[in-house]
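Morning run. Coffee first, then this:
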Amino acid sequence: MTSKRVMHLGAVPYGTGGPGSHTLWLDPEIPGDASVDIAWYAEMARLAEQGRFDLFFIVDSQFITPYSPPHYLNRLEPLTLLSALAPQTERIGLVGTATTSFNSPFNLVRRFGSLDLISGGRAGWNVVTTGDAGTATNYGLDEHFDYDTRYGRAQEYVELARALWDSYEDDAFVRDRESGVFLDPAKQHVLDHEGTYFKVRGPLNLVRSAQGHPVIFQAGDSDQGRDLGASVGEGIFTHAADIAAGQAFYEDIKGRAVNRFGRRPEDLVIMPGVKIVVGDTDAEAREIEAANNQRDHTFEAALAEFGRPFGWHDFRQYDLDAPFPGEALRHGERSFYTQARAITQRALENGWTLRETVQSTRHFRRSEFVGSPTTVADKLIEWWQARACDGFNIGLDHPANFRRVVEDVVPILQDRGVFRGDYESSTLRGHLGLSVPENRHTTARHRLGAAV
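And here it is:
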């Protein structure tokens, strides 16, 4: 760990195009099957590693309609993908999204523990409760869990995961050929967990990695989501419209962590997602941004995906030029409700029609991170120095643009002394300046010994 504060960077690949970029796949640099092409992912991960990025982050969801973005329609499962990327990279962290609503704890914890060992301690888990309500129907349920159940499960799930990862103390495997002793059975621990939502005996049949546990990331923005992030999150993924919004979120999450959960501010690394566009000049970059915004998200695509936060409610059934149907909010109660409520409130407060509301999702807010390499670097530093964040998750959309981030922007950050010139650690925790959690049973043993 280093005492000097440094900026953190993550790369988020969208393959053939996620929400807001339905036609990204038309870029000739992107293979038509990029979202299932391991060679393409490996090329992008190595490019991010060339830029000394902290992590490569794979997002996920498990429910689609014919109108879902191209990347959602056909993409690799995160843990399989990241395990394949592990031997093709050396230092960069490998973070994947997995839901606590529709995974068996023992199985998922084992898979993340395996990725952590395969990668030499570079794994991270983005804990989600799943907002796409339709996912429940893929797992034999008639309806999605309500908010309280989703976040209650997630809280218990993460605590259970950490306990399972501690099943073996770090020196449990003696492997002494002369004595014939392979395992010290006193250092293997049965869990016998019986909680509100899960019952798991354990132990996990897997040792800990060099970083102890995979790093826990979280991205919820509801009050329950913020509490979950503040209590168990080590990396926080978020979005902020400007520095003031970033500072408010930063202070809220770190304040909750300290005041409600007894943690230290440095135990959480906050990384908002940002869209960067680089040009030779500021004016050229703005032209590229405008062209990409117009090309990557048509009105028809926006209307088709508009219903996602409302539980994929089909808004095409309404008159586009009639007032926004506020009653549709009820369809989002077990989906991305925070987002659906915000859209509904804006529409009703402004007296918008449905067409105007959908169009508002296409009126891209001009990103602050657009301009020449120097302009972009200056803006990243400004946010970071203002404590609006600890770093950034950079959307990897058009490959040529991301290449300019790596080759033109990162060197400026390095020259300014705010970003690493080279990796100083081999683990994701090391990159993020997070401590390695001591095995809980070893801690108890030490306390018992000190008390004797």
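Residues 298-360 form one domain. Good start to the day.
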